[in-house]
Every structure is written in C-alpha cells, then in structure tokens.
C-alpha cells in the first residue's frame, strides 16, 4: 500500500502530490513550497537614474567640434578654391572623354604622344571653326537677340489669331524680362563676332592653360594614376576599385564621345538644311539643335527642334517651319535606326526617366557642367549597384509581363520569349564583362 492509502508514509518526492496519478505516472501539481512568486520591486527602485560617463561626454563633444571644423574648412576651400577644384574635375572628365581615342592610338605609339595628337586635333578643329564661322555666329546671335521683341510680338499675334486668345504683348515682355536695355547689352556683347570670341579666350588664357595641362597629364598618365590610387586601397578592396575605375572610364568616356559625335552630325546636317531653304540664323540654330538634342535626354529632341520650327512659322515664309519639322522627323528615325546603335552601342544605356532626373539633379547642383556629366555618373552608380547586389528569382506570376508592357532586356532572358514566340523589340545593351566579387552568390528559392 502507498502512503496515500494509510496516511502514514510520506510522499515519494518531497513536495509532490501523487493523487490523480494515472497509468502514465505523471505528476499533476507542485507543492506551494516549491512555487516561486514573482519578485517584488521595491518602491524606491521604480525611479530611473541615468549616469553620464564624463569620458564619453567629452569624446562626443570633441567629435562634434571636429565635424563642425571640417565643415567650415570644406566651405572655406570651396569658396576660395572652387574654381581650381572645378577645373580639376573638368580636366579629369575631359581626359576620360578622350580615353577611347587615346587608347586606340596608344597601341602603336607612346601614350603621351597619343594624348598630344588628340588634344592637338581638338585645338585645330576649334581654331578652324572659329576662323570660318566665328564672326558669322556672333552676328547671327546679335541679330537674333535684337529681334527677340519682334519675335514675341509676332508669336503673340499668331497665337491670338489662330486660337482666339487674348495675350498681351506688354505683359509677356515684362513676364520674361525682355527689356530694351537687356537686349541692348546682350547684343553689344555678341556683336563683336570673332574679335569678341578671341578677347574672351585671351581673358581666360590662364584657366585654359591650367585645364589643358591637367587634362594632358590625367590622360597621358592615366594607367600610372590608376596604379597609384590602387596602392592606397587594401588588397581585398582593390577589385572593387578596379571595377569602379573601369566603369567610370567606359561610361563617362563612351557617353561624352558618343554624344559629341552625334551632336556634330545632327548640328551639321540641320545647319546645312536650314541654309539650303534660306532660313535666318541657320548656323546658330544648327548648333542649338545638335547640342540640345543630344545632351538633354528624353525631351531634348523636342526642345531642340521647337525653336527653329517656331522661328520659321512666325517668319515671312511659314513653310520653312514645316520643312524643318519634316527634316527633324526624318532625321530622328534615321539616327535611331542607323547612327545611334553603331556610335553609342557601348555607351550609357539607362531608363529615360532616370536619365532625365539625373540631368535635372546635376543641373540644380552644379549648373551646366553638372547636367553635362550627370547621366554617365548616374549610369556608373547603377552599374556598380547592378554588379555588387544580389538578385533573386521572381515568382512566375510576378515575372509574367503585363499586356502592353514595354520590356527592357535583362540577364538570362529568353530572346524569343515563352514557347518561342517572338517578343516586342527590346533594347539590347552591351555590358562590360566584369567578375563579381568572390564569396557572393545569387540566391534562388528552394
């Protein structure tokens, strides 16, 4: 018999009740003496006290002082040496833009000689252009500046007549700030023609010499500079540095050189066409068309052609505006199909919205120079993110393209689509073959 039946024997385990034990022999309760009540927190312990370490406090204060001092020093450097820094940055970008031509010439001659030949070619082209068209360009710009009020008046009258508007010429002139004194000053500055251009060049001779000096050495000693900077990076990070350097050269150099070539072709053909049809300001409008159409992404083509079309429509012969519009439409198709794929096949390939946003952001921060280099810099950052980020397989219902969706080609895409059905034309971007860092793998769902 057990101690439970007689009441004399103690429990087998102190503090454990055996009543209700079933066939499985489990115990069902714990004696009150073995239960632990939650600890009671004294009332005086409810107050929270924070003790500051004087060492940490002094360290934080000194860090704040150093940060403020560095910010003040950086602002002082930018204010007093901003021009020099800007010249260095533009020289570096110019050397990167010359890199494709210098690399090709460097295969058969010394790199310094190749750099000198490229820079001499650019200088000779600039001199020939200024001698041939400098005075004409200055006269056209001055005449165009003087005719701005009349152009606004003609445009206002044309809009009121065609669309039944009630625009006031005086209000428009005051809104855009096109006063007689402003126009006179602008025309006086532009009327000098070639003499004015030469005077401006002479006045900035120091900056041009500095720019040329640094551009030459950045290009001629590019490989040496790359090795010197790589020595400052730990070995495990040198691969990342090499990838970033090569991408910067490929993206920036390819973009700027391709845009310059396309701008030259576009501007030259537009100027020749306007000259043939007898349009005023043909040289200035041709240069405007080439530069704006190529260096302003997405909407640059429309902005570039809008100005000559409007000038032609409100002129004495409105058919000239329609002719320029027809030329722009035909040329744009020819460029998209034949010229641009061959010239800029290895240059920047980015979504149009990203390109336009990068230009607006760069222009807001650094003006025209920022807008000029914003697209290749954005492409560089996106390319680095593409290389050093992990990508995952998409779920089938997410990967399926939506009806009518414009699709960009990605790595691993089947060019013929599911079932061999041809897809809509997609942009085929040539990408640099760059090894991914070791130890990084793409994850796929199990």
TrEMBL record:
Classification via InterPro entries: AI-2E-like (IPR002549)
Biased composition (Basic and acidic residues): 18-38
Region described as Disordered: spans on this chain: 1-41, 403-446
Alphabetical keyword list: Cell membrane, Membrane, Transmembrane, Transmembrane helix, Transport
One Pfam family, short name: AI-2E_transport
Membrane-topology annotation of the record: Multi-pass membrane protein
TM regions (residue ranges): 56-78, 84-102, 114-137, 194-218, 260-279, 285-311, 354-385
Chief location of this protein within or outside the cell: membrane
Basic residues bias: start-end ranges: 428-446
Coiled coil: none
Family, as annotated: Belongs to the autoinducer-2 exporter (AI-2E) (TC 2.A.86) family.
Protein name stated in the entry: Membrane protein
Source organism of the structure: Intrasporangium oryzae NRRL B-24470
């Amino acid at each position: 018999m057990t101690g439970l039946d007689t009441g004399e024997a103690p429990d087998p385990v102190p503090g454990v009740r055996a009543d209700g034990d079933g066939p499985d022999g489990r115990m069902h309760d714990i004696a009150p003496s073995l239960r632990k009540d939650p600890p009671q927190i004294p009332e005086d312990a409810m107050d929270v006290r924070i003790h500051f370490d004087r060492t940490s406090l002094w360290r934080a204060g000194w860090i704040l002082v150093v940060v403020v001092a560095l910010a003040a020093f950086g602002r002082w450097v930018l204010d007093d040496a901003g021009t020099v820094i800007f010249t260095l940055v533009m020289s570096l970008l110019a050397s990167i833009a010359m890199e494709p031509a210098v690399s090709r010439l460097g295969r058969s001659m010394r790199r310094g000689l190749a750099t000198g030949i490229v820079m001499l070619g650019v200088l000779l082209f600039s001199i020939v252009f200024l001698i041939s068209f400098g005075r004409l360009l200055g006269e056209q710009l001055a005449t165009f500046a003087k005719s701005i009020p009349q152009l606004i008046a003609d445009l206002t009258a044309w809009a009121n007549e065609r669309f039944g508007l009630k625009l006031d010429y005086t209000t428009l002139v005051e809104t855009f700030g096109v006063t007689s004194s402003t126009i006179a000053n602008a025309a006086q500055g532009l009327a000098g023609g070639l003499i004015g251009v030469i005077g401006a060049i002479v006045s900035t001779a120091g900056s041009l010499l500095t720019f040329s000096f640094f551009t030459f050495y950045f290009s001629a000693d590019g490989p040496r500079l790359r090795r010197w900077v790589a020595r400052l990076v730990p070995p495990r990070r040198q691969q990342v540095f090499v990838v970033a350097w090569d991408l910067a050269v490929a993206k920036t150099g390819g973009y700027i050189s391709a845009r310059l070539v396309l701008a030259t072709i576009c501007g030259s053909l537009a100027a020749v066409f306007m000259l043939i049809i007898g349009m005023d300001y043909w040289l200035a409008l041709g240069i405007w068309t080439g530069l704006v159409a190529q260096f302003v992404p997405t909407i640059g083509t429309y902005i570039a052609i809008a100005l000559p079309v409007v000038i032609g429509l409100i002129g004495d012969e409105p058919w000239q505006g329609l002719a320029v519009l027809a030329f722009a439409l035909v040329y744009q198709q020819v460029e998209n199909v034949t010229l641009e794929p061959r010239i800029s096949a290895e240059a920047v390939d980015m979504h149009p919205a990203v390109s336009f946003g990068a230009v607006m952001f760069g222009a807001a921060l650094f003006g025209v120079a920022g807008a000029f280099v914003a697209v290749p810099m954005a492409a560089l950052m996106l390319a680095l993110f593409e290389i050093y980020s992990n990508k995952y397989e998409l779920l089938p219902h997410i990967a399926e393209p939506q009806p009518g969706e414009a699709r960009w080609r990605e790595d691993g895409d089947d060019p013929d689509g599911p079932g061999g059905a041809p897809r809509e034309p997609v942009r085929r971007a040539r990408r640099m073959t760059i090894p991914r860092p070791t130890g990084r793998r793409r994850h796929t769902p199990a």
